[in-house]
Amino acid sequence: MSLSSNDLPPPASRDEARSGVVTRLSPLTRRLIAGNASPFTFTGTCSYIVGEGEVAIIDPGPADEGHLAALVAAVAGERVSHIVVTHSHRDHCAGAAALRQKTGAPIVGTRAHVAREGAPGGLDAAHDLGYAPDAALADGERIEGRGFTLETIATPGHAANHLCFALLQENALFSGDHVMAWSTSIVAPPDGSMADYMASLEKLRLREETIYWPGHGGPVREPQRYVRALANHRRQREAAILARLEAGETGIPEIVARVYAGLSPALVGAASLSTLAHLVDLVARGVVASEGPPALSARFRLA
After folding, report:
1. Helix pair angle (223-246, 252-259), 10° resolution
2. Which tens digits make up the pLDDT trace of 112-134?
3. If you write DSSP's letter for every residue of 67-131 in order, what string do you get?
4. pTM for the full predicted model
5. Among 193, 185, 164, which Cα is nearest to 176's?
6. What is d(CA 48, CA 36) in angstroms, rounded to the nearest whole number?
7. Cβ atoms of residues 184 and 3 within 8 Å
């Protein structure tokens, strides 16, 4: 899930491929896009098939019978060894249980979502609360298949349980919703954390993968350069928020109206949550003060 195709620092490949067609991306990787296109999912959720003969399916997507049938047809004659999930938002994992039933493969990857009580509202409703993996993987753990190895990389930020997976044989990274070429990611408290998101970007920047396959949209090429651009973009957003506070604006609606000028009304809520994520981080760092706990309705000022 992401914010806006207008909220994107260059350079990146947009790749507007449509749903329902299996596309060969590399010797070990195929892609099938779910039919859930929206302003938050671009052309739909990308499900990836990794391997040949014995395969892993990464992010089986939403609970959509048509997409599930297409995935099963795409691997006809092959054995599915693992169903791998990057994070528990419904558009990525709600189809996992049905795919497990059809293939017998275990669900591995992200842990189940844990709600944070007493925290400000955010994207908790986006999680599939029925998601139940057979094995939750930790940072550095590996999934071994016939001819492929996927290494788990913990990347909290967009979601607290977000994982990326490196395909070691191709020096590629399945980046989920953490890094996408078509848009920046939403970081929405309480589950999303701007501090975690920035730390996870830096963690990926120091790695050596040469291409990212994201959860929505096309590949991220020159990924280290692009990740630097994403981090700089967030720093610019932070500076713009601080400038609005310095100008005397204290509420998130007023700040969003100025910082995200011209944004589609359908995306104002998401922009408000990302602004809140910045403000939660700034309050934690002692740069900004809030009247009461940081929340969408709170008032903020420079500390």
Report:
1. 130
2. 998 765 444 445 568 999 999 99
3. HHHHHHHHTTTSEEEEEEES--BHHHHTTHHHHHHHH-PPEEESPPP---TTPPP-SGGGB-TT-
4. 0.92
5. 164
6. 16
7. yes
Sign of CA dihedral 216, 93, 27, 32: negative
Q: How many CB atoms lie within 10 A of CB 268?
A: 14
For residue 97, pLDDT over 80 is answered with: yes
Instruction: Provide DSSP, the chain.
Output: -BS-TTS-PSP-------TT--EEEETTEEEEE-S--BTTTBT-BEEEEEEESEEEEE---SS-HHHHHHHHHHTTTSEEEEEEES--BHHHHTTHHHHHHHH-PPEEESPPP---TTPPP-SGGGB-TT---SEEPPTT-EEEETTEEEEEEE--SSSTT-EEEEEGGGTEEEEETTS-SSSPBP--TTT--HHHHHHHHHHHHTS--SEEEESBSS-EESHHHHHHHHHHHHHHHHHHHHHHHHTT--BHHHHHHHHTTT--GGGHHHHHHHHHHHHHHHHHTTSEEESSS--TT-BEEE-
